[in-house]
Amino acid sequence: ERSSLPRTPWGSADLQGTWTSEGELGVPFERPAQFGERQYLTDQEYADRLRQSQVRDQEALAEIEQALEINPHHKNWWSTKAYVLDQLERFEEAIAAHEKVLEFGELDRDTLATLALDCVKVGELIRAVEIFEDLAVEHADYEPAYCHRIMLYAQLGDHDRAEEMFYLAQQ
Question: How far does CA 114 lie from the centroid of its chain?
């Protein structure tokens, strides 16, 4: 059954319209003329964009923290705070924000996965394995839970468990 999306005369999805990621990522859909035929940003241009991104993330974090002062019981704001802290590479604070999200009672797959990855980034490998194990119980079809455990068990020197996860991931 074909979807109800508009179609081109040759049957492909008609994607005409305005498409841009400029607002969110700072990447325009059309190449700015200022770059000419250059394929890459200069080191200075890249550093400037990175600095601008960090400033936007700091501003977003300040706004989220103000919102949480008003209403600390808003799960999505805690989730957004964790995401922004991850962007700022403030992983221990991001872990605390992810844990706050989980206090709302729902074992959200993406929150658990990001929490586990943040634990890896701060060297809490055993905790990351435990979170990925919980994730596999709650979401058995989530393949990354197996793949990450393969790598973590190997990193921890438990090659038998890594091999076991490899075979489970193939099923």
Answer: 6
Provide the b/e sequence for 129-167 (b: ≥16 CB within 10 Å).
Answer: bebbeebbeebeebebbbebbbebbeeeeeeebbeebee
pTM: 0.75
pLDDT tens, residue order, the chain (171 aa): 455 667 788 877 777 765 555 555 566 667 788 888 888 888 998 899 889 989 999 999 999 999 999 999 999 999 999 999 999 999 999 999 999 999 998 778 999 999 999 999 999 999 999 999 999 888 888 888 888 999 999 999 999 999 988 887 777
What sign does the dihedral 85-90-91-92 (CA atoms) show?
negative
- The amino acid occupying position 70 is I
